[in-house]
Amino acid sequence: MKIILMMLLIGGVSSVKCQNAKDIVVNPLRDDTSQLTSKIFKYKDYQDGIVVFGDSDFVAAKMNLNRLSDKILFINPKSDTLVLAKPETFSMVIIESDTFYYKENTYLEKITHYATCNLAVSRVIKLIGREKKGAYGTYTATASINSNTTFTNDDQITNYLGVDERAIFRLSETFYISDKFNNFFIANKKNFNKIFFNYEKEIKGFVNLNKVNFSKSGDIKNLLNYIQGLN
User: Fold this and answer.
1) Residue 140: what pLDDT?
2) This prediction's pTM
3) Which of 157, 171, 176, 190 lies in the 20 to 30 Å Cα band around 16?
4) How far apart are the C-alpha atoms of 211 and 12, rounded to whole Å?
5) Using an 8 Å Cβ cutoff, are 203 and 214 in contact?
């Protein structure tokens, strides 16, 4: 499980449209899948959170983000764990000091805090395949998984797999840039130019001079910081 934990904790490796996705392999027969499950959640424990609606009304509850199902869960007054329904109707969700928006059919975590345009990231884990133990102890692929397949606990993972099969998960990050109206777009050169059209020449110069890699969060943050200075 050390490999799984290391891959899940890598913060500096990121991707645009999942170009740098990380694969995670776990065998429920041999590994303690509870460790994987614990890393699926954004927070170790459920934290104080609020759901803010378009009319500025809000509701509060203990919440957590499940990266495997890409859903926010909450604990109701009866201590039941439920999924936040109709996230497209939310203005935002705030958990602890983190802000999330539901855009492009995924939860985006805000990672910069400027007055108007900001960066956000979607971090998700998907079950993408299975490998069955064969001759000489080697594992070979047996099936691909529908991209909509999701699991929320150890029992679901274990019951889905056959005897001595490995599940292959993929951890990926996708970065987005917002405009002043809080519309979100994939964070690439084209969309930076679209949002900051007044500074297209300056953006080109900065990108070329600094060799900006739009799959690296640090590079994207530096570019946005430069543009904020121009403003």
Assistant:
1) 54
2) 0.75
3) 157
4) 17
5) no
